[in-house]
Design goal:
Helix content: 40-55%
Number of helices: 13
Strand order of the largest sheet: 5-4-3-6-7-9-8
Structural class: alpha/beta
Strand content: 15-25%
Radius of gyration: 20 Å
Number of strands: 9
Distance between the termini: 31 Å
Shape: globular
C-alpha cells in the first residue's frame, strides 16, 4: 500500500523491504503491485547499473505515477504493464525476461485509489459505488449490492469481511434497495450504521463491508493465490519473494503458502513471524498500522 502525505508518496515498510529482499546490482525485479512506484524506485536504485524492473498494476493512473518515479533513477531499465499480476508470465515474456531474482507484492488499496472520490473505495466521500481496480472492465460494487440475494450478500460480508452482523446488514440492504437502488458509498454507509451504530472501537462500522465488496469485485484472494504460484515458477534459484499484506485473509494465504513451500523443501522462510511497522512509522503514516511483511528465499 502506498500512502500520501502532503502529496508525497510514502511506501510502507520501505527500509524493511529493501533489507529483506536485498537487491543487488544487476538484479531482475518484478513488482507485482507497482502502485505509485515508491517501493519500485527503492528496489531499482539498488539494482542499477545493469538491473531491470518489471512493474504491474491494474490501475492506469498508478502506472503513470510509477513511470514518473522510475524515470528519476539514473540508468534505469524498466517495463510497466497494466493488468492482473496473475499474468506475470506474459508480461515477463513481453519484457524479454525469463526469470527474476526478486518478486514483490504490496497488497491492498493504495492512497492513490482511496483518496480519489470517483473510485468508490472509501466511505470518507459520498461517491458512486465502483471499487474496481481497473475501471475499464468488470462488475461494480453497486451492481453487486443491488443484484445479489440476501444469502449471497451475507456470505460475502462474513467470509471476506469477517463481519459478525453480516446477515442483519444484508437483510437491511435488500429491504432498502426495494425502496430505492443503493448507488453511492453514502447510501451503503447509512444502511450499515442503521444496523450496527455509527462506530465500533477504532474502525468505522462500514470498514469490513467495504473490504468484503472490494475483495469480491477485484477477485483479490483468488488473484493472490494464482500470483503466488506464478511467482514460485518464475523466481530464479536463490531469489527472494516478499509480500506486504493488510488484513488477516491475505496474510493467512501468504503464511500458509510459504509454509507449504518450506515443507516441500523448495523455499526457506527468512523470518518466522511477519515484520510490522515501527511506532514511528505508524505515527507518521497511520494507514501502515496493519501492514505485515513476509519474505522467503527459493533454494537452489
Amino acid at each position: 500500500m502506498l500512502t500520501m502525505c502532503g502529496g508525497i508518496h510514502i511506501p510502507v515498510l520501505l527500509g524493511e523491504v529493501l533489507e529483506g529482499l536485498s537487491p543487488q546490482r544487476g538484479s531482475r525485479i518484478l513488482d507485482c503491485t507497482v502502485g505509485g512506484g515508491g517501493h519500485a524506485r527503492g528496489l531499482l536504485e539498488r539494482a542499477v547499473p545493469g538491473g531491470v524492473l518489471i512493474g504491474i498494476d491494474y490501475d492506469a493512473r498508478a502506472l503513470e505515477l510509477a513511470d514518473a518515479a522510475l524515470r528519476g533513477v539514473e540508468g534505469a531499465r524498466y517495463h510497466l504493464f497494466q493488468g492482473p499480476f496473475s499474468r506475470m508470465k506474459d508480461f515477463l515474456l513481453y519484457a524479454g525476461v525469463s526469470e527474476v531474482d526478486i518478486v514483490f507484492f504490496d497488497l491492498g488499496v493504495s492512497s492513490i485509489q482511496l483518496d480519489d472520490p470517483a473510485r468508490g473505495f472509501s466511505f470518507r466521500y459520498d461517491s458512486f459505488l465502483d471499487m474496481r481496480m481497473d475501471q475499464s472492465r468488470g462488475i461494480t460494487a453497486e451492481e453487486l449490492v443491488n443484484s445479489l440475494s440476501e444469502e449471497e450478500l451475507a456470505w460475502i460480508f462474513y467470509r471476506y469481511g469477517e463481519e459478525r452482523f453480516a446477515r442483519r446488514i444484508a437483510r437491511e440492504i435488500v429491504r432498502q434497495r426495494g425502496i430505492k437502488p443503493i448507488e453511492t458509498t453514502g447510501d451503503l454507509v447509512k444502511i450499515v450504521e442503521s444496523v450496527v451504530g455509527r462506530r465500533r472501537g477504532r474502525i468505522h462500522p462500514a470498514t469490513r463491508i467495504f473490504q468484503a465488496l472490494r475483495i469480491v469485485v477485484n477477485d483479490e484472494l483468488q488473484e493472490l493465490e494464482k500470483g503466488l504460484q506464478c511467482a514460485k515458477q518464475i523466481l530464479a534459484p536463490g531469489g527472494r519473494i516478499g509480500v506486504i499484506s493488510f488484513h488477516s485473509l491475505e496474510d493467512r494465504i501468504v503464511k500458509h503458502t510459504f509454509r507449504r513451500w518450506e515443507g516441500e523443501g523448495t523455499f526457506e522462510l527468512l523470518m518466522k513471524k511477519p515484520i510490522g511497522p515501527t511506532p514511528e512509522e505508524v505515527s507518521a503514516n497511520p494507514r501502515s498500522r496493519s501492514a505485515k511483511l513476509r519474505i522467503a528465499r527459493k533454494k537452489g
